[in-house]
Amino acid sequence: MTDERYARSDTSVTGQILRLLSTNPDAVVVGGSGTGAALPHVT
Amino acid sequence: MIERGYKKGIYHNHGTVNAEFIKVGGKAVSGAVAPTDRWSCPRSCPTAIRRRKFRSTSPSAMRRPSAPARATPLPATRTTLSPGRRRGAGGAEEGQARQRPSFREALRASLENVRNVVGTHGVYNMNAETHNGLDGACESASACRQRCLAPDEVTPDIVLWLAQDGITNGAIYALLALALLLVFSVTRIIFVPQGEFISYAALSLALLQAGQVPGVVYVLVGGGVLAAVFDIGTALRDKALRRLPWILLGTSRCLAPWRRSRGGRRRGSSISSGRC
Hints:
The structure holds two protein chains of two kinds. By secondary structure, chain A is mainly α. Chain A has two helices and one strand. Chain A is globular and about 25 Å long. By secondary structure, chain B is mostly helical.
């Protein structure tokens, strides 16, 4: 299990996503709403 | 994440899905799992589904639930939560009480008994089986969820919206071109700062939509008053007091060419004529 964080005003979460995917997760839980919550999807 | 090869579930908390989420995420958020309700469906949702979904719980009903929001009070341990008892000698005892399984059970039961709590995305009714809290109307209309989150499907709504958007943008460019052409054909000067007016208009509109009044309103009113003062001065100098009511109505400059063509050249009327 890994825990990556980003701020509400961030426009890119590429770094977090790359580190996340390097652990080959079975599921991803995103805490947030609106634009910030959609960022992991589009990254 | 999906374009990088991640194929398993992506889960979200309550309150995630809104118009921004769908706009930013687009096709990429298709398949995301989030507790949400019918409010999250965008306008591009098919009308039939939207209507069916909204009938049971209209926005006004969400604002004023028929039954008042109610969470069953904790039966025996509620008093331990009251702030008055928090301080003092009872502190340790109270801490122990909170650690007790019976307290946790009661707290859990109380949270599971939440009724008609109005949230951002719907009205929450918890029970022991599901802690989602939403009544699942959107989920049962799974067609809705898929259609809402699949922007590659073009509905008549989208076609109309795109057409309207295109006409609006095209009108802006056409007006810009017309303004440039008018100035150039009269003065033979390319009016470079024309673009400033476009952005100025856009910013003014944004300000108006934000509920504020642009400061340039005072320039507008002040200019009008100044022009009226000049006209009144001209009228007094010409001893043409009949013009004063028209000036105060703000029409003198507009009517000047018309009156001149009707009544011939008047004294001094050439000064204020023709500029409307």
